């Protein structure tokens, strides 16, 4: 981008600035990183704004129920309103509604948990999860953000995209806590294998004794809308459950059932 183009972009951004909105969004984004909440003084310090403008904005966010105030009145935290609004988004809501029965059937067949992830701002957001039917298992928290670069979910989402979209996703990626770096050539090889096999299976880079199986949920264009992942844990007691190969077959079938291109072929 040349200097004139940059200046024009900056001028356009200045022209459409909404300072009050920016303050409110700054507060929401800050509080999203602090589940235990922050005092007003801590918010003022973190954002580098005056106490008066932060006070007025916080009062409006509390009044509109985007932010909650502690009983003592000294701490502010995000309410569940943002979460509720996000889940009203029709495409996500429809996908989750369709996926949950299929995910529940997989969990019962495989005796394993599973979760559904979508790309979101550089990483993978867990938008649905179903625990295994047994008395114990491994589940990923609903709303958790997991890495795009060192998880089966992230690799499958990256593999099943156009070259342009994949480059954009990689450019937007921000490393999460504990992320394991992966060389570019190794990542390219991994993504090619996923495209060839149609799924990703490997030992977890986050937990011992877990084998992650991830399968894409494809749109009409053949690109991944979401990814279905099961953290497979093998039983070592006398109970004989489905094997890893059987669980993988169940998961591939579930992802195919949810894929739009498969649904359209079946209808045709």
From TrEMBL:
Keywords: DNA-binding, Transcription, Transcription regulation. The keyword Transcription regulation applies. Pfam families: HTH_IclR (PF09339), IclR_C (PF01614). Residues 81-264 form the IclR-ED domain. SMART domains: HTH_ICLR. Residues 18-80 form the HTH iclR-type domain. SUPFAM superfamilies: GAF domain-like (SSF55781), Winged helix' DNA-binding domain (SSF46785). InterPro entries: GAF-like_dom_sf, HTH_MetabolicPath_Reg, Tscrpt_reg_IclR_C, Tscrpt_reg_IclR_N, WH-like_DNA-bd_sf, WH_DNA-bd_sf. PROSITE patterns: HTH_ICLR, ICLR_ED. This is Transcriptional regulator KdgR. It comes from Ralstonia flaminis.
């Amino acid at each position: 981008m040349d200097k004139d183009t940059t200046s024009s972009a900056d001028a356009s951004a200045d022209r459409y600035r909404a300072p009050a909105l920016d303050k409110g969004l700054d507060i929401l984004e800050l509080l999203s990183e602090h589940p235990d909440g922050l005092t007003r003084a801590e918010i003022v310090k973190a954002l580098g704004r005056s106490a008066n403008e932060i006070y007025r904005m916080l009062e409006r966010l509390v009044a509109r129920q985007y932010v909650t105030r502690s009983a003592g009145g000294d701490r502010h935290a995000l309410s569940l309103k943002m979460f509720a609004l996000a889940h009203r988004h029709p495409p996500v809501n429809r996908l989750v509604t369709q996926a949950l029965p299929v995910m529940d059937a997989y969990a019962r067949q495989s005796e394993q948990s599973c979760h559904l992830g979508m790309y979101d701002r550089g990483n993978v957001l867990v938008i649905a999860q179903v625990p295994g039917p047994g008395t114990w298992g491994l589940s990923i928290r609903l709303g958790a953000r997991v890495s795009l670069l060192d998880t089966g979910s992230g690799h499958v989402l990256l593999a099943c995209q156009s070259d342009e979209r994949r480059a954009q996703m990689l450019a937007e990626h921000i490393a999460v806590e504990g992320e394991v770096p992966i060389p570019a050539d190794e990542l390219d090889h991994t993504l090619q294998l996923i495209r060839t096999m149609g799924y990703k299976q490997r030992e977890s880079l986050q937990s011992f004794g877990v084998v992650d199986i991830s399968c894409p949920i494809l749109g009409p264009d053949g690109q991944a809308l979401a990814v279905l992942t099961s953290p497979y844990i093998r039983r070592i007691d006398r109970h004989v459950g489905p094997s890893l190969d059987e669980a993988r077959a169940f998961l591939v079938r579930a992802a195919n059932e949810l894929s739009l291109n498969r649904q359209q072929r079946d209808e045709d």
